[in-house]
TrEMBL record:
GO molecular function, one term: adenylylsulfatase activity
Protein origin, superkingdom: Eukaryota
Protein name (Swiss-Prot/TrEMBL): HIT domain-containing protein
Residues represented out of the complete protein: 51 to 170 of 170
Ranges for domain HIT: 10-120
Higher taxonomy: Eukaryota, Viridiplantae, Streptophyta, Embryophyta, Tracheophyta
Organism from which the protein derives: Arachis hypogaea
Residue interval(s) of motif Histidine triad motif: 104-108
Catalytic residues, chain numbering: H106
Amino acid sequence: APSDADAPTIFDKIINKEIPSNVVYEDDKVFAFRDINPQAPTHILIIPKVKDGLTGLSKAEERHFEILGRLLYTAKLIAKQEGLDDGFRVVINDGPKGCQSVYHIHVHLLGGRQMNWPPG
Ligand code: 5GP
């Protein structure tokens, strides 16, 4: 089932480069690439290379503390790399009411335009 913790998603194919993507950052733990349907001039997805049951933030456990920190820290690094010096937004959609569509945790990094609040 799509919500099974170990079920692969399209993001596994992106990490493995079976599906091409516009990669902006990669290290041993984290992969980041441009969203195919950008909601802002900069729209990047930051994901763990190994999902380890982390389909979404609601499934986080103590063993995920390090990777969760790395995902957010990578968002900051990429924001700097992208020149988002006047501000940016990070978003994690979770579950159906959060509009999550891919069940491999990902941080959205959005910038390059004025963001609004509340987001709607
Ligand atoms: P969610 O709605 O789960 O928070 O975000 C999933 C994001 O993945 C969406 O913004 C969607 O545009 C993006 N996405 C889905 N499939 C692909 C793909 O094949 N390539 C890229 N680059 N982005 C994708």
